[in-house]
Amino acid sequence: MRGRRPRRHYLLPMLAAGATVAAALGAATPAGAEDSAAGTAADDPAMRVVDAWDMTGEHTFPDLGGGVLPAFRPALAEAPNGDLLVGFNTTTDAHPGGQLRLIRSTDDGRTWGASEVIAEPTMFPGGSIHLQRGMTTLRDGTILLPYNDGVNHVPYNDREAALFVARSTDNGHAWAGTDEPVDLPVEFREAWGGGGRILELDDGTLVQTIWGIRELPEDWETDPNPYESGVLLSFDGGKTWPEYHRILRDEHSPAYQFGGGELFPGGANETTLEVLPDGTIVAFVRFDISVGGTSGQFYVSRSTDGGRTWSTPLASGLGGSTLSATMAPCSDYLGDGQSKLMLGYRGPGSRAAVSVSFDGGSSFQGQVFLRDPRNQASFTSAEPDYHRLDDGRVLTVFQIQSGGGPYRLAANVLEDAPDAAACQAQADAAATRATAQPSFVVERSDRDDWFLPMSHARVSYAATTTVGNVLAAQASRLVCHPGDSLTLRTPGGQPLDPAATLAEAGVVNGSVVQLAGTSSSSGFYRIGYTELDIAPEDRSVANWDRACAPGRMAFDYRRRSLGLEVTPPAGQAVTAVELTDEDTATRLTAASYRVLSSPDNEHYTEVDGWSFSSHVEGGRLVHRFDGFAVTDRYLKIAQDRGDGSFSFVLGDPRADIGVEFAPVPCTTTVTGEHPGPLAAGAGVTCIDQANVGGPVTVGDGGQLVVGGSVIDGPIRAAGAAAVLICGTEVDGPIAISGTTGATVVGDPGNGCAGNEVHGPVELNQNAGPVRIGANTVDGPLSCAGNEVPPVDGGAANETDGPRAGQCGSL
Questions:
Q1: Band of the pLDDT at 483, cuts 50, 70, 90?
Q2: Contact 664/686 with Cβ under 8 angstroms?
């Protein structure tokens, strides 16, 4: 569906960025000139500021009897009678007492009259009115003005906000809808207006952005819920908003931290929308995070069904906040689905800037800074909003502070290319650049398990660059160990030839390619981590090493905690962990550490009774934690260093982290002669040096340990917690599926002798590691759908039948 703006006058027509973070993660600097980081926008977008003036001053506030109020976050729309309206609020970020005021211009924004108060805070003691760019004039002449009535109980952390949508049918002179907030279709404790203008689609559907915190958790001071961004839909001209559809919520990224102090909610927030010529709605989403080196980078998502579903958000490569999008005048002259999109934002130096995109937001060029009408050398500015003028230019209003005074509103006039030919030349040049130097995304194949900013990166390379060179440059950037056998592949899993150029491999502007390692973690534990873990009991671990062997990682950095997802052999528990430093010195001591465990990676509890020791081995420092027997699936080692320096580095985490296991007592033990079948229920069932005269079955959640036995019948397990079969003769098939922990059928390298199986072996749809080695199988061996590809530990199986699926080479 195509979207529609209010009445127009048609005219002409960043674990790897950042030096400290790169060092902390061991990431190499991305390869030099061929990688432009996709967000360094240096080309002239043919937009320039040709005029500038102040909008607000003492004349704006005659009711004060002298003086001014601050003016923030202007929202601009044209009334049906041609007047220009600007709403603004008088405090920022819901600080107490803010009002929503409105000013009017009858001369295309050159002069502005006195302000009138449209809304004041009424819902919360100490509350405030908060406004973001959303005002829209519908095709029927109704003006909608969304705003918030909110409060900071604790600034930026414990907040509440309600969404209002004021309506005017008389050119903005009288307003309804200021008495009752919008009845939202989902719960939002903080329901902030999204920051972009409401869209009116061709079928009359209205699309409004919204962001905030859905609910306040009990542990909000130490592990606040993330912000999320989405859209509300209205089908009755904005009277009701019965549908909500999420665009972005990152469950993994830690909270935001200001300068090493308190934690605040982070993640997706201000969002602006625009409709492309083919009807696609493109969303630009601000994302705040204080780890990973990409704080402030915004993300791009698309909807082709009127805002109901959204594509996976992708990094823009460009940093910015207070986002505001519109079509540049040149778009009116471009055909064949082409467009020139303007995106305004707070850019470097906290100054409002505009960049443009000719590919629907996949890449941006140019960076035109808005001007201070007072020509001050030092100023801050942000929050741009736009209106097309009759003379072929764009009126841009924004907030600005200069010369030590309060924030005020200012206007700039932006001029685009002078004619249709110049506009088309720009678009053609951009298309040529995109072909020669495509902007595309490299993502980890396990991106859903990672902090969003560290899960993928937008890059730009010459089309003649080889796939192998891109791979070498991006591996460390995405925290993959260079020693892993890495590949780039399509999202469908098709590997790309490392010797091929990007053009030959079909990587074009806007493509997404995945990075994956071939040496997946087939051992009994996975490695992950989290950051800013000031309350380790509450913070989940993310960033698991599913895609590739993890790269070099500093441990004692920004309250980073190490996580282990442990799936030990059946009947065993974790009894010790060793961490090996790159060198012989560290600032970490026994008092620096905590050891915790969790069954679900949601809530962790302290592990009691553990001991710590330290020694140097082979010129490297080893820290050892032992004296426990942990059977929970997740283990966390937390440390208390929160600054940006580090002294303990895991150069190759899979090699530098050691986990030891030991047997736990069996719940049921079977030895000697056991006539008839045997069913292994809850707990750990051990069959040791036994002769079982019938089939063995394992039910949901049970663990089975078989050693040195003879089973006169099949072994079948469905939904078991773990299965371990060693040195046993099985007179029948083995079928194991749906195991949540480890499945081991022979693994001599880990002390489990191979088995003699008189029948087929099938290992399917198991979630944990699968190890099958040194077995003699009188029948076929097949494996399919296992989350971790099975391995034989270097001890091949002998089969009297075909080997198929994931076990085809075992």
A1: confident
A2: no
